[in-house]
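Q: Make up one entry.
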Amino acid sequence: MARAKPEPATDDIAIDPATSDLRAPSALLMMLEGRAPWEFAALLAATPWLRRLSPGDGHPVLVFPGMGANDFTTAPLRSFLDSLGYVTKPWGQGFNFGPRDGVLKRCAADVRALAEEHGRPVSLIGWSLGGLYARELAKELPEHARCVITLGTPFTGHPRATNAWRIFEALSGQKAEDPSVMERLRKPPPVPTTSIYSRTDGIVSWRCSLNEPSAIAENIEVHASHVGMGMNPLALYAIADRLAQPPGQWAPFDSNGARRWFYRGDGAASMPSSTSRRTAAA
């Protein structure tokens, strides 16, 4: 009798994002979301170090909160970027209950107004669901978008590979599993795009947050919870590093040297070289 072949490691499986049956994060990872207050405490402890980073160039940054959240949750992130010299703007639409009628239209108007006011493109940062807004706005208004940075945003993979899809449907009144919508969301923005994700995310399967690496797209892995990612000092450091790049001189995040102890440069690095480009979005 032939022996059964052992199953390959999860990271070695080539996954088709269009048909993937990826599961939502486990109950254990959900429980680990309770570490978010410690991430805020770590941010307070790291603030003197973070403020020693190179000052920003003063360009505008629009920040979108996650599902069911409001601008209060992005206040630590915006305060940090303001301290570096960027001009941040909250999304200003109260609680994020999904892309209801008029929501994205107002977001687009804000991007245009901010770009015109400052005379230069706007960096778009979105946390979780907010990251979908940032990506879609950059596709709609590429001339006004400088770059896109997402935090734990599920833009690929199976739409139900999260622990929040039922909440999304209840709050937004829309179906999470719409093939045409998912196909649109998977398409990358035409501007430099960074996805910051965590393998210990208890809300979104980390594989749903992977860009297919390209000349203007990358993934940065951090050790963070989903609900604490926007105030995690490692995530904030990576954001500041990405925003500091001069226009037209974008380069992938450098995770060499001392950074290798804290970051993994790209989510596709663990996949076989022959399939990494085809499956990195899984």
Residues 23 and 161 are 5 Å apart (CA to CA). The domain at 23-279 is CATH 3.40.50.1820 (Rossmann fold). Residues 1-21, 267-282 have pLDDT under 50 and may be disordered.
